[in-house]
Specification:
This protein is α+β, with helices and mostly antiparallel strands. It is built from 7 helices and 17 strands. The chain has a 7-stranded antiparallel sheet with strand order 3-2-6-9-10-5-4. Strand 2 and strand 3 form a beta hairpin. Helix 5 runs antiparallel to helix 7. It starts with a helix and ends with a strand.
Amino acid sequence: MIRTLFNVLLLFGLLSCSTTTENKMNRPDVMETEKRNLGSLLALYPKPMTVIGAEVEGKVNWLVVGHTGIIGHDRILVSMNKNHYTNQGIRKSKKLSINLVSREMLPKADYVGSVSGASVDKSGVFEYHWGENGTPVIDASPLTMECDVVDIYETEDFDNFICSIANTYAAPEVLDDNGKLDYTKLKPVLFEFPTYSYIATGEIIGKCLKLDKEPSMCAKEPMTADGIVRLSKIEVYPQYLDEYMKYATEVGEISLRTEPGVLTMYAVGEKENPCKITILETYASKAAYEKHIASEHFQKYKQGTLHMVKSLVLSDQTPLNPANQINNFIQ
């Protein structure tokens, strides 16, 4: 009896070891990763910075809110601490406006996030008008959405207002030629909660679901002390102008897209004489320039257009205000 029991326990132990070994083989050991476990940290930042507008006790009130989200394609979530004075007005009217923040209105937006409407009248901080849905809309905001509160999801410390969108107002300067929003023009300010920092919207690096057909722009190097700013002044023989422009367009596009050290390559032609072309070129460093002229695409351009060019003058420039330099300007 004792011998039988020992054999059963031994078999169970062997099976257990086999299962453990198999699990380790089928599942990667999370402790071997180089990533550091930060615990249950909320790290979904940065988020668009917004100023929420609402009427509270007969007065307009503004509040900075950095926690917003999208629920499906027809709902927005606005998450606000229950202690905020603005919440009582939203609960009563079931309406609010969401105003995206531009750099120009950032100081005022920062202010309305630092004081409470319970003790300070913030109604006059922004110039505004009443939207068609009955909410205050900030005139300086490049984009405002008027919303109806359709539900409130409460957590321990937050009122989470689930909203439908009644109206969206956009300034003309943030629309493209087809009347649609262009976020490269809008450039909303972003908010990063852990360090309480404001962040500028970045550049477009590619088109979603089209990266295999439309390769994205490479990340660019910063301009160094030996960086180059140059005007290349070229005169092309008239009979070769169209062919030359094909070469120039191709080398400019490839250089900007693939070379981190090529910051600008912008070509213009004189209206009176299109054969006279000037190219603004900026390179992050001398090494970046040398790498560029040794590249396959530049050599293709250089060798292919030698007989087309009547004259060439390379004129290096000194930036008068380096802070205003153009880093990415596609021709």
